[in-house]
Design brief:
Blueprint lengths: L2 H16 L8 H17 L5 E5 L2 E6 L5 E9 L14 E3 L2 E3 L7 H20 L9 E6 L10 H4 L4 E7 L7 E6 L1 E10 L14 H13 L13 E9 L10 E10 L5 H11 L3 E8 L2 E2 L4 H8 L5 E5 L5 H6 L4 E3 L14 E3 H18 L6 E2 L7 E2 L2
Parallel strand pairs: 3-6, 3-7, 7-15, 8-14
Antiparallel strand pairs: 1-2, 2-6, 4-5, 5-16, 8-13, 9-11, 9-12, 10-11, 17-18
Helix pairs in contact: 1-3, 3-9
Length: 382
């Protein structure tokens, strides 16, 4: 297909995906997006599976049952919006705007078209999908933790290397990412009439005292910010009455930690300085991309990218936790993820496609049958 037609198709398919408001609060639209992808794949006779795990849809597009030499990870769920206009994509000054433009519907569109193009080349040689050098895992719950998508499905797929198209930029291939520790602080005081506060115990005041104590554990600052961070993301006190000293208060904390920290030790340190009840609501490991000849090859096809770290987390951590090497990489979004200005730089979109296209062309045709145990070396059968 001529390059300009392919670029236009990449953009138009991304726009179609953006128009589906697949947020966590609209599970029916997450399913609608999964069905749209499935129907597109069927149109090109691409074998795939649409799997629903605890209500979350995902799609696997693999060369062979439960195995792929290289796996591309992308997600079609997006974060909530304050303005519904974000689901109406538009182009401006070399960028494509809309919810999911950079996080991560462009990645889904790129993966779908890239798979189709390579499969058509193989079919022209008399080969079929079993000869594909890569597969796809497209999921619908990355923005809420990814546990039912990548977290559940990657355990059953034999993989040598993965690329999560969900971060980084054309100049930086991400090989390290912070872990996540999310907590809920729950405080009980004594509610009384606000005209006589001395008779009660303000739960919000107690919560503030505990939060300040926790802040003291996160005072480290470095120029590149590769250190543990703490953010209070949500807070509530009282029962809604304006003349009652709050007897209950709670807060949500989001902690991102590096490989130099043990989350259990962090949790112990926090509990030692507060009177609040501390509940763990989410815990995810750090991402370590490991070492692989696939990484070396990807760097050679990246047109000058270097490896580095990223502060945000992605589904890559699930595969890293299984000791499967891989990276997070993608187009340039100018840090607009999760904002009302979300967009992707279109030139970078096309560049990532071309680099991955060259990378997979170099891998060539794969063996027809592969048996793989995560703890064993690769074994080929004739």
């Amino acid at each position: 297909m001529p390059e300009h037609f392919l670029q236009r198709e990449l953009l138009e398919l991304t726009k179609e995906l953006i128009r589906i408001p697949s947020t966590c609060s609209r599970p029916q639209d997450i399913h609608r997006c999964a069905i749209f992808i499935s129907q597109w794949l069927k149109q090109y006779d691409i074998d795939h599976q649409l799997v629903v795990n605890e209500g979350v849809p995902s799609l696997t597009v693999l060369p062979r049952p439960n195995s792929a030499p290289v796996l591309l990870l992308c997600h079609f769920d997006v974060v909530e919006v304050d303005n519904e206009n974000l689901f109406e994509p538009f182009e401006k000054a070399g960028c494509l705007y809309g919810r999911g433009a950079i996080d991560d519907k462009y990645g889904v569109a790129l993966s779908m078209i890239l798979f189709r193009e390579h499969l058509q080349q193989l079919r022209a040689q008399g080969l079929d999908q079993g000869a594909m050098p890569f597969g796809l895992l497209l999921t619908g719950d990355e923005e809420v933790g990814g546990f039912c998508g990548v977290g559940a499905l990657c355990k059953d797929i034999a993989i040598d290397f993965f690329i999560a198209i969900d971060g980084g930029n054309p100049k930086k291939i991400v090989t390290r990412g912070k872990g996540i520790l999310q907590l809920q602080l729950e405080v009980t005081g004594k509610a009384v009439h606000s005209a006589r506060p001395w008779l009660g115990e303000n739960a919000f005041d107690l919560l503030l005292e505990d939060y300040r104590e926790i802040q003291n554990l996160f005072r480290q600052e470095t120029p590149n910010h590769w250190h543990n961070t703490l953010v209070l993301t949500n807070c509530h006190a009282g029962n809604g009455s304006t003349n009652v000293v709050p007897g209950q208060a709670n807060a949500s904390l989001d902690i991102r930690y590096t490989e130099d920290s043990d989350p259990k030790e962090l949790l112990t340190a926090i509990r030692s300085v507060v009177s609040s009840r501390v509940v763990v609501t989410a815990l995810a490991p750090v991402f370590d991309g490991g070492v692989s000849h696939y990484l070396d090859l990807l760097i050679r096809h990246s047109e000058g990218a270097v490896t580095g770290f990223e502060h945000g987390a992605s589904d890559a951590r699930f595969l890293s936790d299984l000791r499967i090497p891989g990276v997070v990489w993608g187009a340039e979004g100018e840090k607009s993820q999760h904002t009302s200005d979300e967009h992707i730089v279109m030139e970078s979109f096309f560049k990532i496609y071309d680099c991955l296209d060259g990378f997979f062309c170099t891998l060539g045709v794969q063996p027809r049958v592969i048996k793989r145990n995560f703890s064993d070396p690769l074994i080929e059968e004739n």
